[in-house]
Here is the input.
Amino acid sequence: MAELATSVAAGVICSLLEKLGSLAAAEYAMFTSDRREVELLVDELSSMKAVLEKLAYIENLDPLTKQWRDQVRELTYDTEDCIVSSMLQDRQDGAKDWFIWKIFPFFKDLREGYNLSKQINQIKADVAELSARRERLKIDEVISTSSRVSIDPRLHVLYKDTAGLVGIDGQKDKLMDMLKDDQHLKVVSIVGFGGLGKTTLANLVYHALPTQQHHENRFDCQAFVSVSQRPDINGVLCSLLRMLRVDTTSSDNSNVQLLVSMINQHLQHKRYLIVIDDLWNESDWYTIRCAFPENNSGSRLIVTTRIDSVALDCCSNRREDVYPMKPLEEQYSRRLFLTRIFGSQDACPEYLKEASTEIIRKCGGLPLAINVVSGFLASKKTPERKEHWERVQSSLGTIDREFEPMKQMSQILNLSYMHLPHHLRACFLHLGIYPEDRKIMTDDLVKQWVAEDFVPCCPHRRDREDVARGYFNELVNRSILQPVDIDYKDEVMSCRLHDMMLEFILDKSADENFITVMDKFGVRSGGTSKIRRLSLQSDQENHVSVPGAITLTQVRSLATFGYSGDSVDRVCSRLKFVRVLVVEGRGITLDDMAGVCLLLQLRYLKITSHMDYEDDAVLLPPEILNLRFLETLDIADVYDATLPEEIAHLSSLRHLLLPSEVVLPDDIGRMKSLRTIRKFDMSQNSVACINGLGTNLRDLELCFDTDTCYPGEGNVALCSALQKLAGENLKHLAIVSEDM
Here is the structure.
């Protein structure tokens, strides 16, 4: 665990070095003597960063070295916040007293220089103390002589969605036999510990079973929902209703009894196929089970669980209806492992066969373990090198299927993450901000990683988001992320984390003070002292609030899922350095937005609401002009929105994602940084606005209302704008009709 934390600490220094570099380059007012001090600080911190990167490959650090590493990390966070705070204060004061500073610019520079000078002296003292401690502890002598593993990010996704299905055909056939020939409602459970492929098998049968039914016995409706270890039963039932295409209102969503009744009535005279994935206890089953009527129509329920007693309970204690998931046989394990690395089982070199046999044996037939280990080897530039295999072989213990398989599984997961290159480690930990079983959009991750400065400024002017997408692809290649939606270009649009992977991440994050997760049970992961990233995970019955005694000023990312017990503006008033804000599952008021507009460091803002239509509108105030660093504004998943004219002055805004029928300002052409507009509603926006579509746009989604007659000049302007964009940077154009 220490090696991952050390590498993340090194990554934190990178962001600080960039800011100190800006100071030394005279971007801000500074005394000459201070500029020299900054240059010396950059040298010392760079040296510390190099030490931390080397420490990252030592598995067992002694307690004093770990303590020094943690002190460097926290000092780096606090120093960066301190510098940013000083610069922001100078800008705010300058804005207030602009007339004085315009007359006496010398005194303005003197005041700013004095403020920075104080900060630099304090940083200098703190860094000197840590440098002296590094000497006393002889930390440089601790460093291993092991060479750094260097892996360049892949630009093409190598994940093969058939890989997880090796050896599963026999299991599929047995399970489908268990579901045949019965007009009564039949429940079949799949049971086994995590990583065996229960969800994969259930999903395969879910898609295969309807195709094998005679026309008169086809299922009328289907649904596949996940429950998880800490379920939101209201949310599970609402997901069922959405998949069954039953409309609900927000008032319905808060009443479990009503939701169960609505599902039951909808299915009363239908033949249905439902999968309940990842069920953990009997009480949740008793609630969910009431939604499914016994109508003698040949309906089927498939339940997956890790717990044998739950599996039996779902099947009314009929052991013959419980399918025990077994590990893969050796031949299938070998095929999955070698095909993932070499593309074919037969392509494995002869000199690696002995090592491969031992590695496969140690994976114990677990598909998740096999995918993670083979993904690690496949990510190497030269996967055929014998030393890579010998290192894996010596690092792995053997999974004992009879004794604590999950505890030993973490050893296999740890192998992959110990060898993650430095640039991927913070991105990996950041995944823990999302709730269990959540589908995560690739674009969201990419933009959040850039906003958090996990992606450094790139040489040769390479776009940081392109680099971040390479990071994402690398995590997919290593089987850390599971692709969900793949587009026609074989690019992964969305993904999921295996629940075992999420628990592993949260365990690592707690050690690193990277993310604090709070849910209805309290603090699930991380601490409450100096919170750096906060995830609030509520459900409709349990609204999570942050106690007033907990300080939030150091928070850099805040994500709220569900109906938080605190209003957005109340939480925002406690934030200072937040860069990423995600608000999902609740409406947002004008007061809330006023609070958001005070977050001067905000770079990424996403608001998603599930409220009733009349309550689901976002009104952005003119004060949004304060968000001068905002790069992404995503309000596409609200019913309605109103933008002020001032939004055209957000010079850093790169991505603007909107619902339909939103009016953009005529002078949108001022937004030179804008790369994405979704949706640009042709029925609402003026010819001047169309003409203003900048040549820097990469991604444009046009929205049409087929019942609206568009003026000829609007069509001409659009054609002209598209012709201009096509000759420049436009990579993606979508044209959609709201009536389709």
Q: What stands out?
A: Residues 168-324 form a domain with the Rossmann fold fold (CATH 3.40.50.300). The chain has five domains: 2-142, 168-324, 338-479, 513-655, 660-740.
